[in-house]
Amino acid sequence: MKNFRPFLLLALFAMLASCSTVRVSSDYDQSANFNEYKTFAFFKPGIDKAEISDLDKKRILRAIEDNLLAKGFVKSENPSMLVSIFTTAQERVDVFNNYGWGWGAWGAWGPWGPWGGGFGNTVSRTTEGTLYIDLIDAQKKELVWQGQGTGYLARDVERKQERINEIVGEIMQEYPPKKMASN
């Protein structure tokens, strides 16, 4: 039975890793010519309204800038496109009832080996956030593209930038719109 421990740890790791996925979607103005947008700047009035810490705003804006620069955009004082963000967050509470006899009653290993008994509840709290990235035609002052990503947020300071990079990267994979990418 001890040979199962590495497999159980691997299965647990795989399950936790699957929780780090980001659900993304995007929408865009079908009449916009995305080939015209080559320069960008951040839209400060919109960003200031985002209800997150200034440190998290910096992390998000840094990740967006890195993604846009990698796509060939240039940051400019006279941009063709403005970038704004909006965020929402909600706490998710999961309660697991742990009682009974059999495999996994106390997780993988109970007090009597893999077959054990256990009673009680386990409460798990996570914060799920949604980041909206808005791309605005600077001349017309109209929204031309919006990307949205929803995923679990990191609470650990060292992991925050990594998680934000992951979320922003997944969202920005949707830009330019697939229809426009082939043109």
TrEMBL record:
Gene3D superfamilies xref list: 3.30.160.670
PROSITE patterns found in the cross-reference section: PROKAR_LIPOPROTEIN
Keyword Nucleotide-binding on entry: no
Signal peptide: 1-25
Top-level taxonomic group: Bacteria
Matching InterPro entries: DUF4136
Entry annotated with the keyword Signal: yes
Domain spans labelled DUF4136: 24-177
Keywords assigned by UniProt, alphabetized: Signal
Protein name in UniProt: DUF4136 domain-containing protein
